[in-house]
Design a protein that fits this description.
Layout lengths: L10 E4 L5 H18 L1 H10 L4 E2 L12 H21 L8 E11 L5 E4 L6 E8 L7 E4 L23 E4 L5 E6 L4 E3 L8 E10 L1
Antiparallel strand pairs: 1-8, 2-3, 3-10, 4-9, 5-8, 5-10, 6-7, 6-9
Length: 204
């Protein structure tokens, strides 16, 4: 008998079944507008998000300043509650609330190296614009530091046995994961911009 112990569930789903086209168009428009007027974010991105734009270092609470992003939060709250239930966290779901929410615009050549989201509980990304063959989100096996003499896995190993797993982004969909999971977005090699909204939910 084989038991799969200590799994790392990743939540993937469409944001909504109705009204998504309109919301996505509004999010795209506002994201591009912020990237043009956010001088502090532009300067921060030059040092920390080279080649692209993120509002992480300037306007990281968009759900509190924009009605469009507030609407996005209402949809995300529902998915986060489902994810909390699946993880069987011993906490009142109402105590896990959105704390930060920011824009990521990745033109050709931009990338986001491996990282975690410290002190948060659940993190995620909602995809606004995903050109064909744009960068995936790539997750690292959290046990990697302890593998030592463990042999590599076969090139075509099942997903559950791989050391790194890439999930292809789709506009209108979201990915949720526990904030301690290391992940990255490899270099965007498409000529079009990849636009996403990232967020953290904290235990309040």
């Amino acid at each position: 008998m084989i038991k799969n112990l200590f799994p790392s569930p990743i939540y993937c789903a469409p944001l909504a079944s109705q009204g998504l086209k309109k919301l996505n168009a509004e999010l795209r428009e506002e994201s591009l507008k912020f990237s043009q007027i956010d001088e502090a974010g532009q300067k921060w991105s030059e040092k920390n998000y080279r080649g692209g734009y993120t509002s992480y270092g300037s306007i990281a609470h968009l759900h509190q300043v924009s009605s469009t992003f507030e609407e996005l939060q209402r949809h995300l709250d529902r998915h986060v509650r489902k994810y909390i239930q699946h993880l069987e966290m011993d906490v009142d779901p109402r105590q896990i609330q959105m704390r930060t929410c920011w824009i990521n615009i990745m033109p050709a050549g931009a990338q986001h190296t491996m990282h975690i989201h410290p002190l948060s509980v659940i993190s995620g990304t909602y995809y606004v614009q995903t050109p064909k063959n744009c960068s995936s989100i790539k997750f690292e096996d959290p046990r990697l530091v302890g593998f030592m003499a463990s042999p590599p896995r076969k090139a075509r190993a099942q997903e559950r046995n791989q050391r790194f797993v890439e999930l292809k982004p789709e506009a209108g969909s979201l990915v949720l994961f526990e904030s301690w999971m290391r992940h990255e977005v490899p270099q965007n090699q498409t000529p079009s911009e990849r636009i996403s909204i990232s967020f953290n939910y904290d235990w309040m």
